[in-house]
């Protein structure tokens, strides 16, 4: 959990759950998230996410293999979105912000991955 947005998301999810609603929060599965904070982690689904990229000055299209895991973090149900670690550096980091990946690419990918998962 990092920053004010994380506090708001956690508080909102817990408040909704206290009122009887089932809540799940989709999060990027950063490699810096300690495994011990994820309770009841379970593989849910694997799918591909369409993704454009530049190669030798040319825009090309491809697909990113993506996995989703469910679990609980800090009492909140979460869905963790993970690009295939063998083919992507997205979300590989020592800390959440300022990691060793292109943040714009990461958030574009994450947004599309969430939409593809919800189809």
From TrEMBL:
Listed GO MF terms: alpha-1,4-glucan glucosyltransferase (ADP-glucose donor) activity
Gene3D superfamilies listed in its UniProt record: Glycogen Phosphorylase B
Coiled coil: none
InterPro entries: Starch_synth_cat_dom
Enzyme Commission code(s) on record: 2.4.1.21
Pathway: Glycan biosynthesis; starch biosynthesis
One Pfam family cited in the UniProt record for this chain: Glyco_transf_5
Keyword field: Glycosyltransferase, Starch biosynthesis, Transferase
Catalytic activity: [(1->4)-alpha-D-glucosyl](n) + ADP-alpha-D-glucose = [(1->4)-alpha-D-glucosyl](n+1) + ADP + H(+)
Starch synthase catalytic domain segment(s): 1-118
Uppermost EC category: transferase
GO biological process terms on file: starch biosynthetic process
The protein's name in its UniProt record: starch synthase
């Amino acid at each position: 959990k990092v920053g004010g947005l994380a506090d708001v998301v956690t508080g909102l999810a817990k408040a909704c759950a206290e009122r009887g609603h089932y809540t799940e929060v989709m999060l990027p599965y950063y490699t810096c998230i300690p495994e011990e904070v994820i309770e009841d982690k379970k593989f849910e689904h694997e799918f591909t996410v369409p993704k454009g990229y530049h190669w030798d000055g040319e825009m090309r299209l491809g697909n990113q293999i993506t996995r989703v895991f469910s679990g609980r973090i800090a009492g909140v149900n979460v869905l963790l979105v993970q690009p295939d670690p063998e083919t992507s550096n997205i979300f590989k980091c020592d800390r959440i912000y300022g990691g060793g990946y292109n943040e714009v690419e990461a958030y574009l990918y994450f947004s599309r991955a969430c939409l593809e998962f919800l189809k």
